[in-house]
Amino acid sequence: MTHSSSPSSASPVPVALSLGSNINRYQHITHALDALSDAFGALVCSPVYESESVGFDGSNFLNSVVLITTTLGLDDIGPILKQIEDDNGRDRNGPKFGPRTLDIDVLTYGDLVGEHHGIELPRRETGRNAFVLKPMADILPDTRMPGSDLTYAQLWANYPKEKQKLWAVPFEWRGRVLS
Predict the structure, then answer these.
(1) Which of 98, 91, 43 is nearest to 70 (CA)?
(2) DSSP per-residue codes, 9-41
(3) What span, in angstroms and rounded, lies between the C-alpha atoms of 6 and 116?
(4) pTM for this structure?
(5) pLDDT tens per residue, the chain (179 residues)?
(6) Residues 6 or more apart from 59 whose CB is under 8 A from it?
């Protein structure tokens, strides 16, 4: 299903974002949380996990999922996220799978399913990668993944844990212990 526009209204929409970094990881995840809070207000943050890189040989990543609520459409959120990545030294000339100072991806936008503004929703990696699915199950356990009959907790319970290893790491942000 392809839609030509995403909703933009006075009604707030929950948006799940994945954060990942494997270069100066703690610094860039902290800066991302600060910038997202400044741009969107209150954040619901998952624990921060460390995982091996996927798709290339590289340093381990720190990953987290953040839930924001916004009245902005996808076409308005994208440039904000790209600016946060750029402010954190994101190099867009490297390979698709390679080291990242910061990567922020939209995982879900409300309950939209399909391609919207060039973004596939929910993002494919949401149900495929432990470093996305586990944090989603942490913050939205009883929520059904858009386009699925299963909740994030059910999807995580069914996930083959040996496929990708991840582990929570100590992380504090603005005096809050996230993990």
Answers:
(1) 43
(2) SSS-EEEEEEEEESSSHHHHHHHHHHHHHHHHS
(3) 6
(4) 0.91
(5) 333 344 555 699 999 999 999 999 999 999 999 999 999 999 999 999 999 887 777 899 999 999 999 999 999 999 999 999 999 887 777 666 678 899 999 999 999 999 998 899 999 999 999 999 999 999 999 999 999 999 999 999 999 999 999 999 999 999 999 99
(6) 22, 23, 53, 99
